[in-house]
UniProtKB/TrEMBL annotation:
This is GTP cyclohydrolase 1 feedback regulatory protein. GO terms for cellular component: cytosol; nuclear membrane. Pfam families: GFRP. Keywords: Cytoplasm, Hydrolase, Membrane, Nucleus. Belongs to the GFRP family. GO terms for molecular function: GTP cyclohydrolase binding; hydrolase activity. It is found in: Cytoplasm, Cytosol; Nucleus membrane. InterPro entries: GFRP_sf, GTP_CycHdrlase_I_reg. SUPFAM superfamilies: GTP cyclohydrolase I feedback regulatory protein, GFRP. PANTHER family: GTP CYCLOHYDROLASE 1 FEEDBACK REGULATORY PROTEIN (PTHR16852). The keyword Coiled coil does not apply. The lineage of its organism: Eukaryota, Metazoa, Chordata, Craniata, Vertebrata. Gene3D superfamilies: GTP cyclohydrolase I feedback regulatory protein GFRP.
Amino acid sequence: MPYMLISTQTRLENGPTNVGDEYSDPVVMGYLGARKTTMLGNNFSEYHVDDPPRLVLDKLEKIGFRIVTMTGVGQTLVWCLHKEAE
């Protein structure tokens, strides 16, 4: 899993943070302490943590992820990260 997206709502900069989808690496999700949830009406699952994005980004940097880009989409902040293949 060389690429990863994390996001949060602008009014929730202090968390929770969306850190993955149902296909995300379970080892990375465990490292982040993420919980897998399915919102009512959705046919897919997402991983969330209570930490703010800054702490999530710090944790991901420690295991080799680097920010590629960041953007705002409506009321959502999104970061794209990449990890070099080992």
